[in-house]
Queue: 4 jobs
Job 1
Amino acid sequence: MTLVVGVTSPKSIWLLTDRRLSAPGRTPTDRARKFLMLETTDGRSLIGYSGLGATALGNEPGDWMSRVLRGRNLSVDQSIGVLAQAAKERLIPHIEKMRTNTVRGHVIVATAQVNGKPEVFHVDMHRWPHSKQYSFLHTRYEVPHPLPASPTTPRVIAAGSGAIPLDAHRSWMRPLLRMVRAYDDERVWQWAVARHLAQINQRVAKIVPTVGQRCIVSWFSNRGGGHEFYDGDEIDNTPGDRRIPQISLGVDSLAFMDAIFTPEERMAALQQAEPGRAPTLPPFDIDAINARLGALVMKPDESIE
């Protein structure tokens, strides 16, 4: 399980996910990236999930979602619809084959800016104990447009095992909304909101064992976008793989970047960098880059391993 918290406002979108992977009989690890960043023909979306943290072979659903949307230059709504259908047809059967009692479904949460207005998507696939059937709910929440004279309160959504205490005691919500509003009014930087979300994750992790102290916070607004890794409420200096799966207009951005400079080249540059200095990447090898770009897979792939 996990914690996912999404926030939208008229000017910005945010998403928090913890990084814990847990399974019966195994020591939990906090290195997952339960995230997908999406750029489409009509906007952007930050997508997180709760439920299955890794497939039977240890692959993360965020990477699987990236492959599902690869080669599909769709709108935000269409993209979430494709993910929902693929999860229903592929992910749920995979969960059933794993025969685990700890995962009985999967939830996808997405915050989005679509044509300049905020939206939230919620896909819930759940099997109740002693039942063989899954319920399936795909919901799209849309803020009225044009906005009223007094803009609506930013929309907040939480999911996962960590959402239970948040739903029971909602005193955390008003300070978060005030912080987002302060960012929209350019009274604070994005780091203030990101750290505030990380603090929410930290508080939940202290009382919910399936939520880890490490988390990722991502955001997007007309002032720019980005993401940051946290350990508690401090920047995580040893997060492991810092790259977030990302699809931009149907292109797998991580695969594209790997074609320009391979992971091995980037790692070598990091190891050789002097303390406090940015790493120096090797000169461009145009022939090698063209060969790697030509070998990129551009078609969708819904298979799960």
Job 2
Amino acid sequence: MKTALALLAASAALLAACGNDDSSSGVTDTPAAAEERQADTTAPAEAPAAELAAPRRRGPRVKLRESQFGPVLFDGRDRALYLFTRDSQRQSRCYGACAAAWPPFYAKGRPRAARGVDEDLLGTVMRRDGRRQVTYKGQPLYFYVDDPKGQVLCNDVVEFGGTWFALTAAGKPPAV
């Protein structure tokens, strides 16, 4: 019931556009977007030792795809992936309204690399709620809630106290 109320509240507010630095803004969340994010979530960890052990199941796929910024990382469903400069290596600082606008890229298993993506740079980090978030070169990865599939709309955008960048195969922001 709380989840339904939270989803209803989130859908009642509208994030003006990426680049709006008002961290108190809400977002519109479509049922399809919520369903896609739900499909990539995992249950909370069973023990603290689970934080150190990588999941063994086949997880989400990360691929390289052309964009207006050159080849950048996308998930297996053609959603652009971003890093947040406010995050530190292997630790997310995007929660609450931030995570509603920039949903974390969750993994049920070990992330898989498609052609052009360095498998050694993929990993996961445990979030406060116990779910695993995919990382690339140690940086937690996110989506932008309003990005259409196959498009990068919010590269080099300042929001929620940091800058959001798409990532190249080297794990760096694209040259703009």
Job 3
Amino acid sequence: MGWGRPAVTSLCLLAVVASCEQARSSTPAAAVPQAKKAIPKPKRPKCLARSLGELRAGALPSADCDGEGRSCEQACADGDALACFERAVAVQHNSATRDKAGAVFARSCELGLAIGCTNYGAELWMSDREADQRCAQQLFEKSCDAGETWGCGMLGRMLLDDDEADPDQVEEGRTVLEDACDELGGFSCRVLALQLERGRLGPTKRSKIRKLLARACATDDDDSCGAPRSAAATFRPAKHRAPRADRTHDP
């Protein structure tokens, strides 16, 4: 497949995921105070998908942690995946430390939290390095397999936003999004609506796009709510929030 780099400058992540058209589109607008303790210098870890065991979607046990403070940082260091995720979100939303968030998302991913893998993958997707983009796809696949709708949505986007995609790749992207929307709902339905609206999957009726956004809203994708005028409009930066690691993805 061709490796189309997203034409944006910033995820939450959700994250993932900040630019309106990419995973970073999930980043809340509010900044957080400067972290009190030094953040580890980001590295380019090898693709975590090759060494990951079973990933879990939804919540993992966590300390009372909002991403800041020594106790939260310690909880992450001690192996609390959700604490690492909350820490990474705080680091990412602080302009002074934003470029260091990837290493903390990677730690959350390594500890088994699917949404952490999605966000780390979104960081890698924006890299110029082909190896990083290949790793991003592996992470999205692993996260999606764990039942994490943001991972499925990002995988579908990666496959369909590629200008060099052949018909088989386009069909794969369609299948990923349709299956995830049917089974999980949420963000994957919104991405499917976006791709249909763009004409990437052939002609469609506006009523179908509205139904997909309504399903996304009904299954915890708040950015799809409020009768948006288009699927594309839901990807504006002001409308995005960080995906919650403690949210379940029921059909």
Job 4
Amino acid sequence: MSEQYAGIKFKTIFNKTQTPVDTRIKELKKWCEIFHEKNLAPPYPGGSYGNLSFRTENNKNEFIITGTCIGFKNNLSDDCFVKIISCDIINNVIYAEGTRNPSSESMLHYAIYKKRPDVNAIFHGHSNEILQSAKTLGIPETAKEESYGTIELVNSVLSILKEHNFLCMKNHGFISLGKSMNEAGEPLLKII
């Protein structure tokens, strides 16, 4: 990953300032721990590089995602997660429920859920080994490097997304998709 984290690049409007409630948050916490243990979300001062989410209901683009600036190595509480209600990508606005700002890649997750109704979990992490092996492993990769948290990154991913469930963002990180959290996470464990 070439760009250092400098914060979110969108405005968040909170419809509710309360911690999201969903029994599946426990499973998401488990995957955050695995990402930390396997160095798929490397730590930085104040957080971890990566974000994980799951769709809350079929046929809706609402999802629960890790908040910004949370360390996956920590014992995460439910208030480390944010529910995204909708996104206005053109005006760079996220509508959310929670007590902290959502991940800087919330717009990317929203765009993928919107384009791929078959996807119910998105795991985004960072691994130089995976990025360096993308071509050898036949993993689709975006054409050029784009800055995190931007519409340019969203568009570059959407341009190669098609039916792929695993792809790399050039010089940035990887995205693994699945119908469930296990389906998004288990292929990563095989790759690494």
